Fold this sequence. Notes:
Layout: E1 5-10, H1 13-19, H2 22-34, E2 37-38, H3 39-46, H4 50-62, E3 66-68, E4 80-83, E5 85-90, H5 99-126, H6 132-137, H7 149-175
Parallel strand pairs: 1-5
Antiparallel strand pairs: 2-4, 3-4
Amino acid sequence: MTGKERDRRITDLGTLKALAHPLRSRLYRNLAVARVATASQLAEQVDEAVSLVSYHLRKLAEHGLIEAAEPRSADGRERWWQPASEGLSIRDEDFRDAPDEAAAHTAASKLFADQRMDMYRRWLEERGSWDEKWNRTASSSESTLRLTADELAELDREMLALLRRYDEQSRAAEAAGETEGRQNVAVHTYAFPFRV
Length: 196
């Protein structure tokens, strides 16, 4: 892990709204995957004009979600960006006190869920182009458990600890030059109560 904050907790409505813009959330996700990138690189990934992407990156920076990174090339005209923290945390308890905040949190949560589902749908459409090993190891599962709220909180902590361990291992391996065979892997989990 770097010297960055592990998970920045978003507690203010302005920052939540800044991130909940569809293009900004895509840019943030792509930047988190790349770890550092220029507006030009991100514009190519999202198929938008560099000027538009630059504008939205500045908005993310205004809210402390991303920050300037050390230049990775000799071209001093290009500005490099990186996430300002290792991850983000958005909790219901920080937005439930006012109806407008609760509505914004719900809208943001739906946007993020839609974008995650779009990633999974894209995998389903493209999996034929991946080799058999990736197809064999990719997974989708659903488990239905009967837990207390405290047990659910503990499950969440344990799952996050496991993911962080793998993230730290992969960052250390990449820093040591061990990049062969590595691909970006999305792990989406949802844990919530429901009634039948």
